[in-house]
Design a protein that fits this description.
The protein has about 300 residues and is mainly alpha-helical. It is about 70% helix and about 0% strand. The chain has one domain. The chain is built from nine helices and no strands. The radius of gyration is 27 Å and the shape is elongated.
């Protein structure tokens, strides 16, 4: 996620130099064929304008739909942040000593730490799962070695962590650490976390409809390639800069839509899941009154990952 209001020039150049070079060569070729070789290749504005209107509609539709995907992904991760805080609050408030057995404060603190650390592990595991990152050893500080070894053999690791969390709730409830009403409330929170994970997986696994994406791309490039033929009669050699500027505007809009439709890849335009996961970790560990907390994720070149 870009943090600056204005994208740096070097990013724009890196993003668009290939298309600018191609459009320059193409516009120059058309101008040379018409002005030097005097080939009758010019066309009128009427068909060009009709194609341009269609291309603009398709690009606008695609970009709106792509942004909707990104914004939904961001809202889901906002819910993950809130539900994680809710979970930690429930653990600290609901998991209390069993009055029928003598349990000291240290034992209760260990249970709090186990349940909250497993939630932190789930958040990081969800990020790795969505970005296809094999960084499961990074979960070692939050899980015991046996649980981590078991988890590495599972296909959908976030799902299995929530399953373990739910089973652990059942064990604690049966031992009298909280009553059935509190058990239901905590189980409901686990359910909302499952719901958020499912929404993320739906966005990740369901690509933007290719019939819209390909139609938009084809129309844009037909329009961009035809533009110099419409400019060359009136603008002469100025067809080159005007063709590049007008063409790059459409190509850039098309490329922005393509990038935005993938909110969970490791791109500059993604939802900053690493940063959000670190925020959750800091908040939850602070709830445990820990003093040695990690630093928030720092942006790299004004990009937060």
């Amino acid at each position: 996620m870009h943090l600056r209001e204005n994208i740096p020039l070097q990013v724009i150049v890196r993003f668009s130099w290939k298309s600018v070079v191609f459009l320059t060569v193409w516009s120059s070729t058309v101008a040379y064929l018409y002005l030097v070789l005097q080939l009758p290749i010019n066309i009128t504005y009427l068909p060009l304008g009709t194609i341009g209107i269609a291309a603009a509609f398709m690009v606008g539709f695609r970009n709106n739909a792509s942004y909707d995907r990104y914004w939904e992904a961001r809202k889901v991760w906002g819910a993950v942040v809130n539900d994680s805080r809710t979970w930690a609050t429930q653990v600290l408030s609901f998991v209390t000593p069993n009055h029928e057995k003598e349990l000291d404060g240290q034992r209760i603190s260990q249970l709090h730490r186990e349940l909250i650390y497993r939630q932190i592990a789930w958040v990081h595991a969800l990020c790795f799962h969505l970005r296809r990152l094999e960084k499961w050893d990074a979960l070692a500080p939050f899980l015991n070695p046996k649980e981590l070894t078991w988890l590495k053999d599972r296909k959908n690791k976030p799902t299995q962590l929530l399953r373990v969390q739910a089973e652990r709730l059942g064990e604690l409830s049966s031992k009298g650490f909280f009553d059935s009403f509190r058990h239901i409330a905590m189980a409901r929170t686990v359910g909302t976390l499952y719901d958020s994970q499912g929404k993320c997986e739906r966005i990740k696994e369901t690509p933007f409809p290719r019939q819209y994406a390909e139609s938009s791309r084809i129309l844009v490039w037909i329009f961009v390639l035809l533009m110099p033929f419409g400019f060359v009669e009136d603008f002469g050699w100025l067809t080159i800069p005007f063709g590049v500027l007008a063409g790059e505007a459409f190509v850039a809009m098309e490329a922005v839509g393509e990038l935005t439709e993938h909110p969970f890849d490791f791109l500059d335009t993604d939802v900053p899941m690493l940063a959000l996961g670190r925020t959750i970790e800091i908040d939850l560990r602070e709830m445990l009154d820990e003093s040695s907390l990690p630093e928030p994720v720092k942006p790299i070149d004004n990009v937060l990952l």
